[in-house]
Amino acid sequence: MSNLDLAQSGALGDSRLAGRRGAAEVWTVANELPTFFAVVAAIGLAVYLLSNQFFYLNLLTMALLFGGLAVSWNIIGGFGGQFSIAHSVFFAIGAYTAGNLYKHFGVSPWIAILPAMLLSAAVAAIVSWPVFRLRGPFFAIATMALTEVAIAFAMHWKAVTGGASGLTIPYRAGLENMIFQQRWAYAALFLGYLAVTLLTSIVILRSRLGYYLQAVRDNDKAAEASGIPIMWTKLKGMAISAALTGIGGVFFMMYVRIVEPAGLLSLFDVGVKIALIALIGGIGTIYGPLLGALILVPLDYWLRAFMGSAVPGGNLIVLGLILVLGSLFMKKGVAGALRQVYRAWSRQQ
Amino acid sequence: MSAIQLGVEGVTKRFGGLTAVNDVSFALGQGDILSLIGPNGAGKTTLFNLLTGQLAATAGKVFFDGADITHYRPNQRARLGLGRTFQISQTLTSLSVLENAMIGAFLHHPRIADAADKAYAALERVGLASRAKEEAGHLTLGERRRLEVARALGLEPRLLLLDEVMAGLNQTELARIVDVVVALNASGQTIIVIEHNLKVVRTFSKRVLVLDRGKMIADGGADSVLQDPVVVEAYVGKKKQ
User: Fold this and answer.
1) What is the count of structural domains for chain A?
2) Which residue among A76, A86, A247, B81 is least crowded, i.e. fewest CB within 10 A of its CB?
3) From A2, A20, A215, residue closest to B179, measured CB to CB
4) What is the nearest CA distance from B181 to chain A, expressed in angstroms?
5) Domain range holding A130?
6) Nearest CB neighbour to B127, from listed A6, A13, A217
């Protein structure tokens, strides 16, 4: 049996018989595009339908921002398994780069995107170099410490950050300034941001880098024996993830027009929240982080509104509980649970 | 004998007071197959790890194709052509069978379609092609062992190191993997195998190298080595006079 198998498949070194059979079995970027366009179109429709409902539109805008941030985080946190809670640092770098270039030099935020990406990626690579030697919880704790350093730094570097009172930029509406009178324009802007992060994430997942990141996450010993340079792979993933997070910071700066270190670098409201969103939505999947943002951002708002006054901190208790239950019963997040339900359903059919 | 591919000169590994591998030297020609045997704790896997770079040698040198690779990282050695499997299968459980094999094939084929084709060919060589789409976590122990071989083959290795790929398998699985190893060697692949089962070793390996407590106690033809009193003693103890 086995001899026959081997002979048929050309075990004696003749792999020409195999032809292009492997390529047909593997999922490529082209396979992912229909779903991608459908998701972006569906959200575009939602933006259109809500364009006069400012409350919901604002909620959707924030969900799209955090969706984009979580998708960016997922590249290193999900694919690469490096659980960073310091992505608020790259978010802040993006915001401060755009804010200062706009305020002091009149540089359009559209142009500021490039230096914001480069700076975020550079800082990410430099701080990750030593931190990537740590594993699992130790890595997460080190990134937490990094956030604290960044807050202290931002508080003292008043020329750039405005210190505790924050950095404000003047309101001058116009496409070139990325400042809009219409609320829906921001929703569209953040939808564009989300689309860019999703597309990058798809391209990475369906490329060698995506597979290398997953190999490093699953088993670094096997990865290294397969010729994968572990540190370099993690650094590449981290730099791309940070650069995309930096873009989110640019857009956020132009949306709120005032940022202060305590808010921008808040461990819970930004750093942990990004990771939490990805975790609950479905870590390591393409759309899980987006799903997480669409669930968690409105939920967080609602919990604050209804519990914040009655039970101070009650929203955090509920979110913590969701995290515990989620990690106990839905290890692959909502996206993973949905996939399981779908598989069970299609088996019954 | 053909051109020397792997040269090991006085390689030693100490863990504190314990000498796991003690002054081992041997050479391996291109296209040869060598079995590394010895009782538990003899230092076989440690020697493997010194060859592939998972461990750094305390003393001695390792040469590959004439180049001194003693201080190379495992990924650099893989790049040069050392492919290996692990004693405890290191399956990438979140990936499919094909994707596991692709992790190796990406080394020389960065494009995803090319890597998938090469990986598929490697799966065919180990008889796992029909399982390509399945989650690797669902494979049996024997299948995982063969998947490891496929991932290592994806590297297009010049030297393949198999660490106990036959341990703990049932008769059918054992026969399949022996077939795979024999076919690979017949196609010109240089191979080093760590193996406990002496009967199996005899079937495919002409040359056997025996380790005992870190020292190389025999190196030669399978039949003569397996009857060598020193080797027999290492395995079953001294005969009472």
Assistant:
1) 1
2) B81
3) A2
4) 10
5) 28-348
6) A6
CA distances from A19 to A2, B109, B152, B180 (A): 21, 15, 20, 21
Taking only the tens of pLDDT, chain B with its 241 residues reads 568 899 999 999 999 989 999 999 999 999 999 999 988 889 999 999 999 999 999 999 999 998 999 999 999 999 999 999 998 889 999 999 999 999 999 999 999 999 999 999 999 988 899 999 999 999 998 899 999 999 999 999 999 999 988 887 888 888 888 888 999 999 999 999 998 778 888 888 889 999 999 999 989 888 888 888 888 888 777 665 5
Q: Which of A2, A226, A229 sits opposite B104 (nearest CB)?
A: A226
Q: Measure A204 CA to nearest chain B CA, in Å.
A: 11
Closest CA in chain B for residue A22: B117
From chain A, pick out residues whose CB is under 8 angstroms from the CB of B73.
224, 229
This complex has an ipTM of 0.91
Measured in degrees and rounded to the nearest 5, phi and psi for residue B91 equal -80, 140
Residue A347's alpha-carbon distances to A41, B115, B137, B191, in angstroms, are 30, 31, 20, 44
Does residue A79 belong to any structural domain of this protein?
yes
| E-assigned strand segments in chain A | 167-168, 258-259
Cα–Cα nearest to A160, from A100, A109, A119: A100
Indicate the pTM of the whole model: 0.90
Inter-chain CB proximity B113 and A20 less than 8 Å: yes
Residue B213: which domain range? Answer: 1-81+158-241
Per-window interface: B 156-195 vs A, CB < 8 A = 175-176, 179-180, 183-184, 186-188
